[in-house]
Amino acid sequence: MATAALLAVHGPTLTLRLPVLEDAPALLDLAGDPEVTRWFSWGPYTDLAQPRGYIERQAQRREDGVQLDLVVEHREAGPVGVIGLSELSARDRRAMVGTWFGRDWWGTGVNTEAKALVFHLGFGACGLVRIGAYSDVANARSRTALSKVGLVHEGILRGWHRHGEQQKDVNVHGLLRADWMASRLFTVPARVEGAVPAAFVVG
Ligand SMILES: CC(C)(COP(=O)(O)OP(=O)(O)OC[C@H]1O[C@@H](n2cnc3c(N)ncnc32)[C@H](O)[C@@H]1OP(=O)(O)O)[C@@H](O)C(=O)NCCC(=O)NCCS
Fold first, then answer.
1. CA atoms within a 13 Å half-sphere pointing along the CA-CB vector of 104
2. Ligand 1 mean position to 142 CA, how many Å?
3. Which residue ranges form the domains of the chain, and what is each CATH number?
């Protein structure tokens, strides 16, 4: 019996694909760096059980329409980070994108290509009309990186994100499908393979 291809989005140098348990050692290595997870409510990873647990939770989270996370795999180097869609509103056809890469990959161009691929998935295959993102107000690198890929800074959400014992302010950024279609990221070649989880197909 033929097996349906797993979801993947192929670009010039990167593929976004569903995480599998075999990715756990690479994720431990990449997100074992406190600089990488500095702005997140999780991490840094210190034990293989942590990325394994994260990967094991993903199938249910995809099915429930809660989170569609994809490993960013570089054609030569293997996994370099994770990108995903969450906070899906099927009714409003919108979701938020989140991204992290191992420190060695910052500033290499992977963010632009990975965002181009996730936009093809979100706006193209899923039918979203808006993709947003948050950045901590102190995470200037992330804010600049989001602006470079076309997300407009729309304002500050006060006391939005719980991080340890702190309730932090975050920037909210957004990109509309029409603006993506007019942007240079739209021209990055992308091929979606396999089935998009049903909960994430909204249009
Ligand atoms: C955020 C992240 C995905 C961006 O990817 P990246 O490859 O680093 O992004 P880029 O290099 O394309 O863009 C970053 C830009 O910010 C600039 N920058 C760096 N530090 C900066 C600072 N303190 N203030 C302003 N801009 C800064 C860089 O110079 C670069 O701009 P340039 O290309 O014009 O030189 C990556 O840094 C990462 O994984 N960080 C850790 C996890 C994280 O913070 N995720 C985002 C959560 S909201």
1. 9
2. 5
3. 8-190 (3.40.630.30)
CA-to-CA distance for 66 and 200, rounded, in angstroms?
9
Omega prior to 44 cis, within 30 of 0:
yes
pLDDT above 60 for 2: no
Single pTM value for the model: 0.97
Partnered with residue 70 across adjacent β-strands are 83
Nearest to 84 by CA among 105, 104, 62: 62
Ligand 1 pocket check for 107: Cβ under 6 Å: yes
* Nearest in space to 144 (alpha carbons), one of 117, 126, 110, 171: 171
CB 100 near ligand 1, within 6 Å: yes
CA atoms within 13 A on the CB side of 127: 13
Residue 123 has pLDDT above 60, yes or no: yes
pLDDT grade for 4, boundaries at 50, 70 and 90: low
Per the prediction, the chain carries an average pLDDT of 97
Q: Is the CB of 54 under 6 A from ligand 1?
A: no
